[in-house]
């Protein structure tokens, strides 16, 4: 084509090269961002597992503390009852406090707290 000069022929090639170069740079940046995202997801998963473990430990600790508190309260109740023979059994005592026996792991059949 007579109306195109050499400079104009080089421009599309240069433009193509720069586009390819930009594309490679963008792909590299994308790969880096994907790696960062992968690492962040790993940290997120680790933290959520750790939080679950902490929650389980907290539940066990709370349950043991509640059991101990109920036993101490019951002991004070028994020692301070006017008629020593007419105090409530532990089953009825827990019911009178309106405590959910499942939450504190109390076994009504065996009349004791379950091991945690």
How is this structure best described in words?
This protein is mainly α and 116 residues long. It contains 2 helices and 2 strands, in the order H-H-E-E. It has helices at 6-80, 90-96; strands at residues 106-107, 112-113. Strands 1-2 form a two-stranded antiparallel ribbon.
Top keywords for this entry?
116 residues; mainly alpha; two-stranded antiparallel ribbon; 2 helices; 2 strands; 3% strand; rod-shaped
Q: Helices and strands in order, then pairings?
A:
Layout: H1 6-80, H2 90-96, E1 106-107, E2 112-113
Antiparallel strand pairs: 1-2
In short:
71% of the residues lie in helices and 3% in strands. The protein is mainly alpha-helical.
Strand content: under 5%
Output the structural class. mainly alpha
- Major beta-sheet overview: 2 strands, antiparallel
Shape: rod-shaped
């Amino acid at each position: 084509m007579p109306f195109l000069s050499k400079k104009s022929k080089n421009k599309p090639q240069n433009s193509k090269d720069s586009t390819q170069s930009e594309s490679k740079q963008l792909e590299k940046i994308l790969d880096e961002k994907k790696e960062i995202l992968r690492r962040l997801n790993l940290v997120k998963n680790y933290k959520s597992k750790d939080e679950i473990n902490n929650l389980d430990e907290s539940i066990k600790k709370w349950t043991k503390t509640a059991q101990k508190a109920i036993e101490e309260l019951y002991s004070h109740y028994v020692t301070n009852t006017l008629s020593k023979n007419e105090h409530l059994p532990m089953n009825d005592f827990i019911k009178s406090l309106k405590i959910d026996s499942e939450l504190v792991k109390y076994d009504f059949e065996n009349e004791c707290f379950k091991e945690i």
